[in-house]
């Protein structure tokens, strides 16, 4: 008999509630995915303000839940299990979601699972492309994380191969957008500007690609600084800043490093499938260059549609469904959110 899994996400500035159906054959079907974003409340600060995010989650949790059940045509009594983001993320924001999940699980007398936000970004791909090959390589690219992960079992076995040593790719986008006078968050406006620019106009550096650098780790702080210095230099000379060219050249540097390292890691691991997810996975140049290079390397590429790449409840529900299917232990009701939850801990 199929089971309904509810997922709650509140790790940063999106309040997400998703509902999926776990079928007897292990496949997962998306029924509803409702998100309330507080991004506009953070825009004037140029980044996420934790206290503002927490208050926004408190206000949005119940209305978002109501919309999700209305969209799915279900009631709370139909829920068979609840999954909630236990970490990583902002402490206060996580606590709102965890508290809501505990309340719902207690009231409905259903199992509760505290799951990993990062693993959720990988699991969400199964809602669009079906079961993940084992093993596969995940390139997770978001505002706070840039990681290469080996996934042997989405419900229990994820190994980090590399990560950022400073700014994540998404953070670099936000900071470069600020330098160029573009709005926050920086990903969409830079992507839009880059479409009209020349990606070869400026030779920005490719961080951590030297022979002595850790081959699976990433660094975007130097790239961000290089863009800022280039713009400052042009301004001092009284030159008009070619925003489109700067955006395109910056974006090319990011996509070049991400795709190069992902394909190299997949080859070294003997893996034939790469999954790219996280908010930056919606970037048009990253997906296009990844498709081009994966095809040349004979590697299958899977990228969820943009709506699924950003933070949402569907990804947590999807991961919860896989954890339920694997018969993993439920979380105790006294578990705490963990802002620094490591990616190898898929569920609590």
Automatic annotation (TrEMBL):
Protein name in the entry: tRNA N6-adenosine threonylcarbamoyltransferase
Residues noted as binding substrate in the record, renumbered to the chain: 140-144, 174, 187, 191, 283
Binding site for Fe cation: 117, 121, 311
InterPro entries reported in the protein's UniProt record: ATPase_NBD, Gcp-like_dom, KAE1/TsaD, Peptidase_M22_CS, TsaD
HAMAP family for the chain: TsaD
Keyword Metal-binding assigned: yes
Family: Belongs to the KAE1 / TsaD family.
Catalytic EC class: transferase
């Amino acid at each position: 008999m199929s089971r309904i899994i509810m997922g709650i996400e509140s790790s940063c500035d999106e309040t997400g509630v998703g509902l999926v159906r776990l079928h007897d054959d292990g496949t997962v079907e998306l029924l509803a995915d409702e998100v309330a974003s507080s991004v506009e409340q953070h825009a004037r600060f140029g980044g996420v303000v934790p206290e503002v995010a927490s208050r926004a989650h408190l206000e949005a949790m119940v209305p978002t839940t109501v919309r999700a059940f209305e969209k799915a045509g279900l009631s709370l009594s139909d829920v068979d299990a609840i999954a909630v983001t236990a970490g990583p993320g902002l402490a206060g924001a996580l606590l709102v979601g965890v508290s809501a999940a505990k309340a719902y699980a207690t009231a409905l007398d259903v199992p509760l699972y505290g799951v990993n936000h990062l693993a959720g970004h990988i699991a969400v791909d199964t809602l669009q492309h079906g079961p993940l090959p084992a093993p596969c390589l995940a390139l997770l690219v978001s505002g706070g994380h840039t990681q290469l992960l080996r996934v042997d079992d989405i419900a229990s076995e994820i190994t980090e191969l590399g990560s950022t040593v400073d700014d994540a790719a998404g953070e670099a986008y936000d900071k470069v957008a600020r330098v160029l006078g573009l709005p926050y968050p920086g990903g969409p406006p830079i992507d839009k500007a880059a479409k009209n620019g020349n990606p070869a106009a400026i030779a920005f550096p490719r961080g951590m690609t030297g022979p002595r650098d850790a081959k699976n780790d990433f660094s975007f702080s130097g790239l961000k600084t290089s863009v800022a210095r280039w713009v400052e230099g042009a301004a001092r000379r009284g030159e008009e800043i070619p925003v489109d060219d700067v955006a395109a050249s910056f974006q090319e540097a990011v996509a070049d490093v991400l795709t190069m390292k992902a394909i190299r890691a997949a080859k070294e691991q003997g893996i034939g499938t790469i999954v790219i997810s996280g908010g930056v996975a919606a970037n048009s140049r990253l997906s296009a260059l990844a498709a081009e290079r994966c095809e040349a390397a004979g590697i299958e590429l899977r990228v969820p549609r943009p709506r699924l790449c950003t933070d949402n409840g569907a990804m947590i529900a999807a991961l919860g469904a896989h954890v339920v299917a694997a018969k993993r232990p439920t979380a105790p009701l006294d578990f705490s959110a963990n802002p620094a939850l490591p990616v190898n801990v898929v569920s609590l």
